[in-house]
Amino acid sequence: MAHISSLGAGIYTYLDLFKGTIPAGTDTAAECASLFVGTAPGTADADHVRMPSVREFPSIGTPANIVNVPVYGQATSSQVQGQADAPSLEVTVNYVAEDMQAIHALIGTELVFRFMMAAAPVTQDEAAGSTLATANTEFYFKGKIEAILVNPALTDATTATVTLSAQSDFFGPATVAAA
Amino acid sequence: MYDNVLADVESVFASEAWTVNNIEVYPDNYQGDINTESEFCRLNVLPSNSSINVYGGNKILEGMVAVKIFVKAGEGQSRVMAISDILDTVLQNKRLINGTELATSYLNVEGLDPSNKSLYSALYIIPFKIYGEH
């Protein structure tokens, strides 16, 4: 399917992880996307993990870092885009300890992340297909899970803050094509 | 989800921890006979709000469980308070079998029942919350 083509709430947003061996030179959206296709397309492999029960997503993408450049003879300085700091990547999840064991086990491992927005629910198996029948848009990046901090709450669900680090550019927006 | 909340709350009043007290509880919208007309309760489960707490679309359902307590008029407030304390022991801060979570209760003392002055009443209210599948 093509990119999402109408405005709507982003409730069908997912963070998928690829924990297998990442081929050297994986630095395009298409190369990252291929890692998320199952050995049998349409069935998730053991290397495919979905972040469970996400409550809050961070902003995904390369932030701006505007640098002012003084120019003699101008009343205002000029501006250029400098190398941006990687964004703070903190995902808040509803913490169900049993579901999070697989994520705890990945702390410090180099992963490929897929931030997927879809127009309708996409199961993990559907997300492991080479095609997708739902309008979808993805961003990919390489990185690690650095820390998981659990936040008990007195009157609401216990949550955890999962801190990610980005070790590459963000690749995308891309889309998984329809059949 | 709504069924689960009702089943959870009704199961509390079917449990031995409650039935041992011999206080009859009748559901709201019940129009049959009431066995002990000088002391009984009416149960009302009132879902009132819902929200999404997880990407993927599952929801939290929130509301209140209201138990109207009727006791014999003219004998002070102590029986109302005693029944409320019993309700606290079976409801307050409990997580029920289908996942309904009950918080802390409060009591609105309402005085003589306008339609039957031989009864004194109070409304015991306890908020609930149930999380959808995660």
Q: What descriptive keywords fit this protein?
A:
heterodimer, A: mainly beta, eight-stranded antiparallel sheet, two-stranded antiparallel ribbon, 3 helices, B: alpha+beta, 6 strands
Query: How large a portion of the residues of chain B is in β-strands, by DSSP E?
Result: 35-45%
Count all strands of chain B and give the number: 6
Structural class per helix/strand content of chain A? mainly beta
Largest sheet of chain B: 6 strands, mixed
Tell me the helix content of chain B: 10-25%
How much of the residues of chain A is beta strand, in percent? 35-45%
Counting H and I runs of at least 4 residues, what is the number of helices of chain B?
Answer: 3
Order of helices and strands of chain B: HHEEEHEEE
Distance between the termini of chain B: 13 Å
Largest interface in this structure: A-B, 17 and 9 residues
Rough outline of chain A: globular
Q: Helix count of chain A, per DSSP?
A: 3
Describe the structure in your own words.
The complex is a heterodimer of chains A (179) and B (134). Chain A is mainly β. In chain A, 11% of the residues lie in helices and 35% in strands. Chain A is built from three helices and ten strands. Chain A has helices at residues 29-35, 97-104, 124-127; strands at residues 13-18, 48-50, 54-56, 66-69, 78-81, 89-94, 110-118, 136-151, 159-166, 171-174. In chain A, the strands form two sheets. In chain A, strands 1, 2, 3, 6, 7, 8, 9 and 10 form an eight-stranded antiparallel beta sheet that branches. Chain A has a two-stranded antiparallel ribbon with strand order 4-5. The relative contact order of chain A is 0.27. Chain B is 23% helix and 43% strand. Chain B is built from three helices and six strands; from the N terminus they run ααβββαβββ. Chain B has helices at 2-14, 16-19, 78-91; strands spanning 24-27, 40-52, 59-72, 101-102, 106-113, 116-131. Chains A and B meet through loops of A and loops of B.
